[in-house]
Amino acid sequence: MWRSLRRSHSLAWLRLGALVAGVVMVAFAVGLSVINTHEHRSALDRQLAREDRKQVTAITEYFARARDLLLLQAQNDAFTDFYAAAGTRDTKIAEADPTLVKAVGSLSYLEQLYKGRVGEICFIDIHGAENARLVKGRQAAFAELSPDESHNPFFQPTVDVGVGSVYQAAAYISPDTHDLVISNSTMLPGLPPGDQALVHFEVSMASFASINSDLNIRFLIVDATTGATIADSAGRVPVNAEQAPGDMAMLQQLRTSGDQNGIATINGQRAAFEHLRSTRTNANDWYIIAASAPADAGLGGYFDVRSMALIGAACALFMLAFLSFRGYQRRLELAAVTDGLTGLPNRNMIAADAQRALELRRRSGGKVAVLLVDLDRFKDVNDTLGHQSGDQLLTAVGPRIRSVLRDADTIARLGGDEFAVLLPSIHGPTEALEVAARIRRCLRDPFVIGEIALEVEASVGIAIAPDHGDDFMLLLQHADMAMYNAKLFGLGASLYEASLDSHDPRRLSLLAELRLALDHDELVLHYQPKVSIADDTVCGAEALLRWEHPQRGLTMADAFVPYAEHTALIQPLTDWALERAIKDVRAWLDAGREIPVSVNVSARSLHDNHLCETVAHLLDRYRVPSRMLVIEITETAIMTEPTKAREVLATLDAMGVQVSVDDFGTGHASLVYLTTLPIHELKIDRTFVTDVCTRQDHAVIIRSVVDLGHNLGLRVVAEGVEDDATRDRLALAGCLFAQGYRWSRAVPVDVLDKWMDSRRTPVGRH
Ligand code: C2E
Ligand code: CA
Ligand code: CA
Questions:
Q1: For ligand 1, is residue 544 a contact (CB within 6 Å)?
Q2: Residue 694 to residues 321, 687, 698, 735: CA-CA distances in angstroms?
Q3: Does the N terminus or the C terminus of the chain have fewer Cβ atoms within 10 A?
Q4: Mode of pairing for the β-strands spanning 166-173 and 138-139
Q5: Is 455 left (phi over 0), alpha (psi -120 to 50) or beta?
Q6: Cα separation, 125 vs 119, whole angstroms
Q7: Which comes out higher in pLDDT, residue 500 or 412?
């Protein structure tokens, strides 16, 4: 008895203890679920706002690009030639005058550039009559052309904004494609008042909703005046704007939730929106909306959980408390993952962010980049100014880098003077290299520490998923190798490449051997003639590096130049090639031959003034006129540091040296951008030339590049011409210059001399 009393007494205490614990936990569970709901909601809101911003950027960039291209296309002289040609408009169209054929070619180029987006494109007379029309690649017959387009909503405003501007009309149903479309149109320049005309193309609204579409987010474009949904990534695209009555209640809600942008709950779903206002040249007044997809439980669900928690069984509540507590603990852990000195996220935090980004990438594609930023000579700062100054500098670096990143990017301090940057969504390496260049630039503005202004140089290594790995630790390790490579060779920034892995002994020995090759005179230049197609005369020669390797024999440029390009070794190599080429020009001049030579230079040559200084010095030393030198540079190289590249190209231009854009068509440089640079020649890449006889789209691209190039006063050269058929097809496309095995491979100087002698062709001029 005595014993059982004591037992029940202690059990009561236990029960009471359990009850109190239960009540405390219930209260805790309710509290935490409220916090959870809040946090979930604000995280969702942030994600929606971010995605919406991306969509707005994609649309505005699309608009800007469409405008640029249309304006550039309008400069094509095909259109002015059509009016200048003899005959009446009707006969010229009915009999397919060559000027009309050329104009149609120009229209189809635009269609090629916007594959899958442009539904209809046409060339219209100022009186409204269509001169030519392409619908989804097919040219309309004479009888199908519309006699009067002047009543279309785009027509008068385009005339009103005048030459040099592009007008974007509000969405309408295309009579040709029966899709809901918006159109871009512009007046053609250079036509006399009676003969004015315009070019007009339509883009289906459906193509806007598919940009960046994410599984969990639904994008909508809503007309800000009618409230009609005119594009919807969920696929509910209206066939007819009139059939889709405006949702005025939604419009009202958007208007009250923010002036320009904001967050609202629409039909029970969270949605971020931005207002893209109409302008004089753009009639589209839109709300761009990113909404959580219908599959999402919605916010109501969370409140249900809370009320259920209040009335539900105690065990469910304990469970909830337990789960919430775990979640809370996790957040606490996350809050503790910042770097003590700088307040930046630390390695754990960026690893978690990277994990999420990589998972998203696996589901919806795209690329993720990890950048490793390491300050150069930071140890000197610590040693000379003391640790306190070193710490101050490290603290100031973070916000500086942060300021050149996007909101969605993460910057973390890994320790010491090492920082990591995560770019969760990029298109490709060029974008990552641009961010690296931005980071390095922003650090060069002096930091004032105490009384001293410090300029900070940094080396950046880049690794990209999925190309260089799909796991954060591996990417970090690869970025670290690329950084080490950048630091070792003073590259500034460098992209990871498996073949450049510094642990790869083959590469290290190749570089070491190449360095010796320079000293041991094992390098030679071979020349490939550039010819004028019409009369087969030689009008220049391209210098291509060869390595006469003592064991391996004659080695092509492709086998060693790309490796050298990632190291500081490319500079002495380029200097050597320049000197050799200029010496050879001098010898040709002495022998009475005028052969301009083209020398290839890599991206790094555009990052400082060394190239300009070397060229000036060598031309002077060998008394070679500057017009005898052509510098070949790829579009991609120009785009890695566009500002500095522009400066270097301008200096070369001022000296009278010519600049040629190599491998044209393979890079991502916008044509419009390139034409603002002082360039003299375009070399159409081999990939377009090789199959010009069998691929219609490549033939169209070549024809348009030739037309545009000539209009802009550029020389256009086709590379990789291997046979007569290709040469004839190029001639037909108006191309005047070519290079390739059809004439000669790259050969030593004396072989080229003999070849020219045997042909006894007079040497032509550019
Ligand atoms: P690239 O400037 O596009 O040079 C043309 C390449 O195509 C050369 O290869 C040439 O031999 C080859 N080729 C020429 N005609 C034909 C043809 O009809 N058919 C085919 N299939 N190929 C043809 P190579 O010499 O191996 O050069 C490869 C690349 O190495 C060059 O591409 C250039 O980017 C780079 N390179 C060459 N020499 C130098 C140099 O002195 N400095 C720098 N920085 N890069 C160089
Ligand atoms: Ca070249
Ligand atoms: Ca090339």
A1: yes
A2: 69, 12, 9, 17
A3: N
A4: unpaired
A5: beta
A6: 20
A7: 412
Q: Give, as one character, the DSSP assignment of residue 723.
A: S
The answer, yes or no, to whether any atom of ligand 1 lies below 6 A from the CB of 685, is no
Ligand 1 pocket, mutate which of 524, 526, 528, 544 (most atoms under 8 A from CB): 544
The secondary structure of residue 761, as a DSSP letter, is P
C-alpha distance from residue 110 to each of 115, 176, 731 (Å): 9, 18, 22
How large is the average pLDDT for residues 80-89?
Answer: 87
Which tens digits make up the pLDDT trace of 507-538?
667 777 888 898 899 999 999 999 999 999 99
Nearest atom within ligand 1 for CA of residue 741: 18
**By C-alpha distance, which of 686, 693, 699 is closest to 738?**
686
Ligand 1 nearest-atom number relative to CA 556 = 26
For ligand 1, is residue 120 a contact (CB within 6 Å)?
A: no
Identify which of 533, 568, 567, 564 has the alpha carbon closest to the alpha carbon of residue 547: 564
Ligand positioned closest to the Cα atom of 660: 2
Q: pLDDT tens for residues 321-360?
A: 666 666 666 656 655 678 888 889 999 899 999 999 999 9
Q: Is the pLDDT of residue 560 over 60?
A: yes
- Proportion of the chain above pLDDT 70, given as a percent: 84
Across the chain, mean pLDDT equals 84
Q: Probe ligand 1: pick from 527, 528, 600, 752, max atoms within 8 Å of CB? A: 600
Mind listing the pLDDT tens digit for each residue in 16-50?
A: 665 666 677 667 666 776 777 777 778 888 888 88
Pairing of the two strands 261-266 and 269-276: antiparallel
- Nearest Cα to 581, choosing from 549, 628, 633? 628
CA angle 42-48-54, nearest 5°? Answer: 140
More confident residue, 367 or 566: 367
Per-residue confidence band for 301, with pLDDT thresholds at 50, 70 and 90: very low
Pairing of strands 681-684, 658-664: parallel
Q: What span, in angstroms and rounded, lies between the C-alpha atoms of 201 and 717?
A: 30
* Residue 765 confidence class, pLDDT cut points 50, 70, 90: very low
Q: Give the DSSP per-residue string, 563-618.
A: HHHTSTTHHHHHHHHHHHHHHHHHHHHHTT----EEEE--GGGGSSSHHHHHHHHH
Say which residues have a Cβ less than 8 Å from residue 151's Cβ, sequence separation at least 6: 128
Residue 162 zone, left/alpha/beta (φ > 0; ψ -120 to 50; rest): left
pTM score of the predicted model: 0.50
614 close to 570: Cβ distance less than 8 angstroms: no
